[in-house]
Write the structure tokens for this entry.
Amino acid sequence: MQRYSLAALLRHGLNGHRGWQANWGVEQPQASYDAIVIGGGGHGLATAYYLAENHGLRRVAVLEKGWIGGGNTGRNTTIIRSNYLFPESAAFYDFSVKLYEKLSRTLNYNIMFSQRGMILLAHSRHDMENVSRWASAMHLNGIDAEILDAARVKKLVPIIDASPSARIPIYGGMNQPRGGSARHDAVAWGYARAAAARGVDIVQNCEVLGFETAAGRISGVVTSKGTIAAPKVAIAVAGHSSALAAKAGIELPVNSYALQAFVSEPVKPMLDTVVLSPATGMYFSQSDKGELVIGGGLDLYASYAQRGNFPTVEKTVAAMVDMFPSVGRLRFMRQWAGIVDVVHDSSPIIDRTSVPGLYINCGWGTGGFKAIPAGGWTFAHTIAHDDPHPLAKPFGFARFTSGAMIDEAAAAGIAH
Amino acid sequence: MLLLDCPFCGVRPEIEFACGGRSHVQRPGPPEQVSDEQWSAYLFFQPNPKGLLRERWRHVVGCGLWFNVERDTVTHAVTQVYEMGAAPAETTP
């Protein structure tokens, strides 16, 4: 792997930038691997990287139906936070934020993680009580959070209409200062490059069509590029988890929905944090290019169409224009949707399956991007040891029978 | 925008409706004879098809009544609408 540095940039610059190498990708997979990861999104690539880096597996392949980072990794709104209510989620997502804090250095790839804070708005006295409970829960879990009054919100977010006559009143809010955003493509590319440098084969345009078993164990996968043998196969395909797992005869407690996001035309800096209004179902941040990156709630019916419908756009934008009147005349540049895999308790699933040697990482729903490093780390452990990582143990299938749900529906930020 | 044909009010846009999830999910019973695994299957492990799905919708701001819709989850094409308690026509996916 060519290391990236200022010196390397200068050196290659003197040679007309003709010396850079391709970072990942093989056309044709080998006939067998020690482990196969299905899905070249953030979670799949991170899993492959940690299998190689933490567990010493060298013969690993990532099989991606399309191109890496082209699914939900490339479709999310790039928010990173760990403001969860319950101890299990707090421990997991804060581990993820901590890995993100070091990730550019770990991967030698600038993921542009900007810890610009993440502000939740409170629009009523009751919202303030909820914010107080929420921040207190975070403090108990050892995660920093500050409660904001209306004046402080106005100071941090000057474009907000916090006047007494505001259509949607601002009572205050809550800030997680270590929250923020990162460049989503860079997270996928950084993990892909670091994994490839450790011998992982990343095969794009390779769709998994089925699974092969021998004596009740997984023995390989059938793909559009031929059959590949492996004693361990791991699924990390987000919204399409149900469809793929069904090919192995596994039913998942997952519902697939379309989640939309939108980007405005670029403007000069107007917002240097992430701002989210749970009550109106709208959040946005400003990218380094100046675009406003806007998200809303789910289209509330099952969907595998990677496009959303207009009522959600209208609802989201209406709330935004009410609270931030200065954005009212901006134009949209793009609108899209990703298919998210929502579990009843809004918590993920990282576990073995009923087929020995087959593992699954799914159920991230509307918040998988922030979990990529921890998801990859704990999933790789689960695969390598055939036993869930301690942080992932509460997120297994057992909870659907035992009833020990981690009901984060209330803490998902936006009420989906 | 989905257009749904309410059996009682006619064709209306999706903003008038609320989706109630899958139809024809049978609650197991009697309760004292239902195992944890059966409850789990009933509550959580239901099909999530990429293709035809039969689901319940309610015309919230119209007649307020529930009805069934069979819809393709990829194309959103509605293949049939039928009343609660009625059996769906067989559709070849």
About this structure: The domain at 30-76+184-253+345-412 of chain A is CATH 3.50.50.60 (FAD/NAD(P)-binding domain). The interface with chain B takes residues 240, 242-243, 251-256, 300-305, 309-311, 344, 400-402 of chain A (CB under 8 Å).
